């Protein structure tokens, strides 16, 4: 095994049941690269391997190698540790992980400390995938922040936009909803209504904005808690439907 740079002070070292598959998985999902060739034990199992991910190194080996009393997780439901990984695009990384067989614990959402998703990889390790908040940091007040495409048939719509625009989808936060993986401000929702495009606008004070809607001839619904903040459905005086949200 060849190391090209001095490792960090603390480096995660994972035990996995299938090291060749795990190496491929971490390289594809986390945009990593192999650091040299794995060290093979006499019985053919991988005794040590390194993967570079950003400015960090992930080490791994197949559990139970030699005299080392470390074994790979066996379909855990509880965990002794979590691995935190900082990525440029939480939604894209999350979508790749799910497509590659990761179990979802928490879908991507903005928190005060950043955008975060939680998943368990196919080898039993729990990951916190974190990055810069999407909505709260990027979208100014008053600008359109989210587009919901209301459709009759979600599978048909996903197939169409996947073929035309190359979109990939992950389940949304409500029944019948799908998030466009690489566009965190676009989603599909099959809710039985007529097809339509519904815009969502960010406001600083949703209660004040809802009062303004009714004062000026529109219709305002009640602000309700959602994973990303407060959301209310509205309509302008001509009946055009839109949404307001406050982080």
From TrEMBL:
A UniProt-annotated Pfam family: Glyoxalase
Matches recorded under SUPFAM superfamilies: Glyoxalase/Bleomycin resistance protein/Dihydroxybiphenyl dioxygenase (SSF54593)
Domain VOC, first and last residues per copy: 6-132, 143-247
Lineage: Bacteria, Bacillati, Actinomycetota, Actinomycetes, Pseudonocardiales
Protein's name in the database: Putative glyoxalase superfamily protein PhnB
